[in-house]
Design goal:
Shape: flat
Order of helices and strands: EHEE
Distance between the termini: 11 Å
Largest sheet: 3 strands, antiparallel
Structural class: alpha+beta
Strand content: 25-35%
């Protein structure tokens, strides 16, 4: 298992609450933004967000065995 933790003291922002992009549309028809969060969620086994003690914390986990 590999785990990446991104942490900052910026404004609270939960990227997991972002609206999922409509990937059935062409690139020209889609609005800008949101595809990166979508791709990370699809590639990782687990993505968690929490805001505690004035800190945003995004944890990405992926199992490396069997990939």
């Amino acid at each position: 298992m590999a785990r990446l933790i991104f942490q900052d003291n910026g404004k609270p922002y939960n990227p997991l609450e972002s609206k999922e992009p409509d990937i059935t549309l062409s690139a020209e028809e889609r609005t800008i933004g949101g595809l990166g969060v979508f791709m990370v969620q699809k590639m990782m086994d687990d993505v968690e967000y929490e805001y505690t003690h004035g800190m945003n914390k995004l944890t990405l986990s992926v199992c490396l065995s069997g990939r």
